[in-house]
Amino acid sequence: MHDPSHDPRLDRRAFLAGGALALAIGSTAAAAPADPGASAAKAGYLFSLGVASGEPLPDGVVLWTRLAPDPLNGGGMGPEPVPVRWEIAEDEAMRRIVRRGTAMAHAAWAHSVHVEANGLAPGRVYWYRFSARGEASPVGRTRTAPAGKVARLRFAAASCQDFQNGYYSAYRHMAREDLDFVLFLGDYIYEYAANPQRTRQHRGGETVTLADYRNRYAQYRADPDLQAAHAAFPWLAVADDHEVENDYANDRSEKQTPPAAFLARRAAAYRAYYEHMPLRPAMAPRAASLPLYRRRRFGDLVDLFLLDERQFRSDQACPGPRWGGQVVNPDKCAELADPRRTMLGAEQERWLLQGLARTTGRWTVLGQQLLMASLIQPMQSGELGVWTDGWDGYPAARRRIADRLVAARVPNPVVLGGDIHSFWVTDIKRDWRDPRAPAIASEFVASSISSSGVPQVITDAGLKLPYVKLAEARWRGYLRCTVTPEAWRTDLMTVDTIARPDATLATLKSFAVEAGRPGPQPA
Ligand code: FE
Ligand code: CA
Prior knowledge:
It is a single chain. With about 525 residues, the chain is α+β, with helices and mostly antiparallel strands. The chain has a domain at about 295-490: Purple Acid Phosphatase, chain A, domain 2, CATH 3.60.21. Helix content is about 15%, strand content about 25%. The chain contains 8 helices and 25 strands. It has a 10-stranded mixed sheet with strand order 5-2-1-11-10-9-22-23-24-25. Strands 12-13-15-18-20-19-21 form a 7-stranded mixed sheet. Strands 3, 4, 6, 7 and 8 form a 5-stranded antiparallel sheet that branches. A hairpin with a 2-residue loop joins strand 1 and strand 2. The model is unreliable at about 1-40 (pLDDT under 50). Calcium ion binds near residues 186, 187, 242 and 419.
């Protein structure tokens, strides 16, 4: 079952054996673990956190690595800047090099590098690697975005990878797929303290400082399955709440931390996020500000809007003693319907609504964090309520997007989300209470990679709603989306367990959307 051609550790060995570059190989460089369940973060290897690529454009990608010989204890690099050589080739053996250069890794950015490798050809596969201080990185594979007339695009969408809750088999399987890119929709890390009751343990307490967040990202990125998925495809990532703190909203902590103190924490979290993600250098944060929302075009086939639903949002309505989300009866929370309440912030919302009026792709995709369909659910009191941290907490803002999709006749809108740790397939409607209202868009929500599923009472409530086609919390996994000019197909990919690192993969169900006919149908 294990396909060595997609295993970056084996690729690196192959490279070392081939000796394509004249490098003085340190004795630790070849000490990669053979057991996929073992930590790759060992024995002082500079590239213990692997390699990654991201932000694919038709003529370039971002190449990422971070020098970290002691990844779980601050990195172990000291204060000095270190030159890192990079090269990108047309072949896996790294013989036909098309671009190379040197980037400086600085202590201020945790010795991470974000190289913009440009001048590449559209829609093709490349391989890349780094070297520094006589050591070579694993070889990563990446792919530029296609341009012009695009016949097919295939990608995975994933979210929510609580390390403590289980293993990342889903990524090991994902790494063997044939994908143009991976979309990550939020909760890349969880900030929580170590919990000895769980399958795997975080190191240290709840993350608050920059040092805490760096060590937490390093612990996640040391996972061999996650490394394999990064080394196999370029990623496009957006963040949700747990990259900073559960349910945070703009400058509001769920723990009622004073906003200035919370923004210092947010700045640390955003900085560590950038340091560990294959983002463009222009996306580096300034203090607590991270320029994350963006638009990507995949030729004439897909216009992708990647949204940020945490940094600029209004605080959750009608807060209880704990700020953050709760289930409230909308009839008892007038604030919910206030049109001034925003999910995206004024600037991002304007950018999105204007962009939606000027798309050029056959399909229009919103890559965002949350379930967008309204989820009416039972409360402990017996009343019906909505969850204030999700889109149901921002109904006027959601309606403004729906109105724009209709008014601008946005071509074939598809909403992708995560956060709720369960699969959801829904019709997006303008008016959720009108059973005759037509579907105006199609929604697919990825289950978690490893985070624990929502209680079945939630999915049972969802399944009673006429616009919910599927709600399934029992399985962890990801979405695999295949897009052509005629149709969109989403396969719900599941692993049979997260209690062990050797789970098997299955397709739970598949849905299709025909171009011109909004609403997913069983495929
Ligand atoms: Fe989550
Ligand atoms: Ca979340």
